[in-house]
Amino acid sequence: MPENRLDYDHIVLVSIDTLRSDAMASSPVRAWPAKYRTTRRPRRSILDELAASSAWFPNCVSAAPYTSASHASFLTGHWPLRHGVHELFNRALRTPTLLANARAAGYRTMMKVDFPLMLGEHLGFTREIDEYIVRDDDAAVRFIEGNRRACTFIHFSGAHIPYGFGDHELSTGEFARVLDAVEQECGTSRRRPRTSAGSAAAGPYQRYLDIVDHLYRSGDYSTLFSMYLDGVDRFLVTRFAPVLRRILAALDGRRALLVVFGDHGEEYDAESFAHQNSLSDGVLRVPLMIHGDGVAPGCHRSRVRSIDLVPSIHDLVGPLPPAEADGASLAATIAGGDAYPVRDAFAQSYIADGREHARQVKQALLRPGSRGPLPHTLIGEAAYVGPWRVVRRLGEQYLEDGAWRVRPVEPRVRFERERPDSTWEAVAHAEPPPDVLARLDRYNALAGEAPADRAGAAGTADSALRDQLRLLGYRI
């Protein structure tokens, strides 16, 4: 903990949804070049400029491969099994966020989100928020400019499907031009895939998702990943950089702490469709940058966890009430560049059965008020322990009659060992120490130690929310 804490006027957290760490040009850890055949390379951007003047952690492990659960860990400092939002879309937060603690300390609080479905009231994210803004970057900047003392969270969806565009930017001429170009490049303009509803006259968003699905079924993972990198570049230049420059200008002359992070990455292979069902290191490894007064710039390549952010900020800020967290403080590293121990990291993926979801929605329509929590299946989990990474697969998704189904499978375990360049290589089962799996089992025991659920189940999403989730690329 630093000896002299800073009484910050502003604490600003910025999230870039679906940004994996090695999608940044200056990332020192790159896993994708060895996997994908692509001439696309990330272009240097404002993120690389920010990283050079920040305490930069390019090897931050996210606690989950989907938006709600990952953000909940970044904002609470708790593992998903403790804060409650461990499934894809089901239960509400049961532990306070950094913003709630900041509000108790006298800060004005604001959340601006591009995905109100994933980061909204029904999952508990808006508790203790003075102003909640949906998809309005200008309003978010004005809030920072107009408040002397504020703690804010700003979420961007631009790197999510469809790549480089948010769901409120799809009517632009640029999106239409990109869509036509992608169809030409992929050879699907003359044999356009039919939509899940069987209609050949699909809207532009569905056409794009059909192309993604066509490429995935064809095993053309390299083209999909090239599209992802291209979209990240487009988003950072056209939308993110102008807003970030305005935020930095608004913070100029004020005591401020700015945090920028990704919630999860993107991956395509036989086990990974984008991110939701993936435990790939490319999905779980995200960038974390901390910039501002009292921060010692430097790149720290050793592993940290998303749950370490909140205890670090609490140590740096001082006047916030003390927070109990599962994470460990990195304040001494952020303020003084000190070394830190490498700690265990865990992640899990829970998937809802699409047919069961449809059954519950139908039941709710016939019998209002009858719906309950949507059952989820734990299909996989990962543990990072020292130089080892273990992935245990417990279920799989498959397509049946137009709906994504989930079934348990005999557990399959894969061990990986860390290379000198911080990437991973598979090894035989017998080599790793047996304690690696034991620690994963102890992590699962946290579910029985979680605090009582303050808000109960968020409930099953109705058909309109389910359609929104599908259009965001989630397989339910």
TrEMBL record:
Belongs to the sulfatase family. InterPro entries: Alkaline_phosphatase_core_sf, Sulfatase, Sulfatase_N. Residues 10-318 form the Sulfatase N-terminal domain. The lineage of its organism: Bacteria, Bacillati, Actinomycetota, Actinomycetes, Streptosporangiales. Pfam families: Sulfatase. It comes from Actinomadura vinacea. Gene3D superfamilies: Alkaline Phosphatase, subunit A (3.40.720.10). This is Sulfatase N-terminal domain-containing protein.
